[in-house]
């Protein structure tokens, strides 16, 4: 019986040197392509889908996080280039976000390292996913449904209410961001960048799902530069997270990342085109639903009694 | 003259022998062998001394084959001999965790770490091991999943024992611990073979292979061998780089990603 099992699975099976398991080549390419498509369409890294899916495929959580971060580097590069050509990247804003992101990524990698040691990494990763995905998803869905309702009523909608001042404008260290037509303090983008860097390193996500709404609702950036600038910052933060995970935790699987990137780059290009055919609020509603769906899925895993209460972790593995 | 004498002696010997057999009309009685004085020797080898893990590795079956020298068995079905083959991977530290419910959420609760758990363990035998020999002998030789020593005192503690049985069960689910009652097959009077399946998730390192020969419940002979499971080719290069040159490895990962992203964009751009 075992003989048949082994030979039947040989087709398209590939052994991953760091994860130390054998996976199906086509499944991993397809997963990369699906996530890349969403990445191009919404301007998110897609890691919030990729990392949980990798864990479901049997990749150890820490390896899924590090490899997910590496994959996002690849899809973000091609995504940024596509956005760059359309003049949708605010370099000034990107630089400030990256500065914050570097600090956040460092904290995230060290935090994950500590939690792995005490055996609670999986739980904290899952809980953080639920809280962030749940909150962001609900807020986005609420906003986009309202926007769609207004749109149907014939009113013009703009996510950016220019001229309207909020608490952000009271902060010091004001900077000029010509591309975004903003003159605001550098502190909010630094904090947002740091938070996104922390999430990138800790959850293996690009952080687009939090950065895009933060840019729209807190920084009040014009929607057309939001996606390009977000994905631009994601390249640097996920690259740093990849490097830190590889150096400190030895959890990066280059072969797995390579497969996911190949699929992701191709999927990403189609995603960008698909995204242009949808209106902003439709795009946001769709993303919100997806974010909520993944959040609920992770929550179910936490609440439902596991089939096996016991789990084993070999020290030599991930 | 000398030639004739020799021929005569041979004839007389033959006549005596055939006469003796026809007179008795029964096989000769089995020679009485006292425990510890038996002549049998077991010899065995492994089909593959080195298992190479490459990118297309999805598990492999290795064959342990051997023979019993000076076998007294007349027929293969006689059941005089039993063979137990043991394949044991390098020891590893394994942590078992039990989930408990805290505020409606299942979290990792108590845990137990086993410092010397074998990373792979397979017992193959010609019959159920408990039918072959006594529990004391099995215990002394460490044969069978229930006789494994994980380097942790568990006797008399129900909590510890539940952790240990969970460890064995989970390792069995991963095909890393196996017991096969009919895994050793005799071919003829003295040849035997046993196949061990090493799954795709097989740990790397040096494996010990032990073959025990039992005669009527007593250990008659044993032999040892070893087996290396290694990553080779690209797999080994990646693994070594990741653990010995981690910074370079991380930079390489980023470079591949950036390059792939760049090439994807060039290949697909329309403007």
> Architecture of chain B, according to CATH?
Sandwich
Name of the CATH first level of chain B: Mainly Beta
**Rounded radius of gyration of chain A (Å):** 20 Å
Strand content of chain A: 5-15%
CATH homology superfamily of chain B: Macroglobulin (MG2) domain
| Gap between N and C termini of chain A | 29 Å
CATH topology of chain B: Immunoglobulin-like
The total number of structural domains of chain B is: 1
Q: What is the strand content of chain B?
A: 35-45%
Helix-strand pattern of chain B, N to C? Answer: HEEEEEEEHHHEEEEEHH
Evaluate the radius of gyration of chain B: 28 Å
Largest interface: A-B, 65 and 66 residues
Assembly state: heterodimer
Outline the biggest β-sheet of chain A. 2 strands, antiparallel
* Secondary-structure-derived class of chain A: mainly alpha
Number of domains of chain A: 1
Explain what the structure shows.
The complex is a heterodimer of chains A (318) and B (271). Chain A has helices at residues 2-8, 25-42, 47-56, 61-85, 91-118, 121-152, 187-203, 208-217, 223-249, 254-276, 280-303, and strands at residues 13-16, 21-24, 174-177, 182-185, 310-314. The longest helix of chain A is centred in the middle third of the chain and has 32 residues, at 121-152. In chain A, the strands form 2 sheets. In chain A, strands 1-2 form a two-stranded antiparallel ribbon. Chain A has a two-stranded antiparallel sheet with strand order 3-4. Chain A has one domain (23-156, 166-303). The relative contact order of chain A is 0.22. Chain A has 318 residues and is mainly alpha-helical. Chain A is built from 11 helices and 5 strands, in the order H-E-E-H-H-H-H-H-E-E-H-H-H-H-H-E. In chain A, helix 2 packs across helix 10 (254-276), helix 3 (47-56) runs antiparallel to helix 4 and helix 6 (121-152) packs antiparallel against helix 11. By secondary structure, chain B is an alpha+beta fold. Chain B has one domain: Immunoglobulin-like (Sandwich), CATH 2.60.40. Helix content of chain B is 31%, strand content 37%. Chain B contains 6 helices and 12 strands. Chain B has helices at 2-24, 129-132, 135-141, 158-173, 233-244, 246-268, and strands at 41-46, 50-53, 60-69, 81-88, 91-102, 105-118, 121-125, 177-180, 184-187, 191-198, 205-215, 218-231. In chain B, the strands form 3 sheets. Chain B has a 6-stranded mixed beta sheet with strand order 2-12-11-4-7-8. Chain B has a 4-stranded antiparallel beta sheet with strand order 1-3-10-9, with no helix packed on it. The N and C termini of chain B lie far apart (112 Å). Residues 15-25 of chain B have low confidence and may be disordered. Classes of the chains: A mainly alpha (318), B alpha+beta (271). The interface between A and B is large, with 65 and 66 residues.
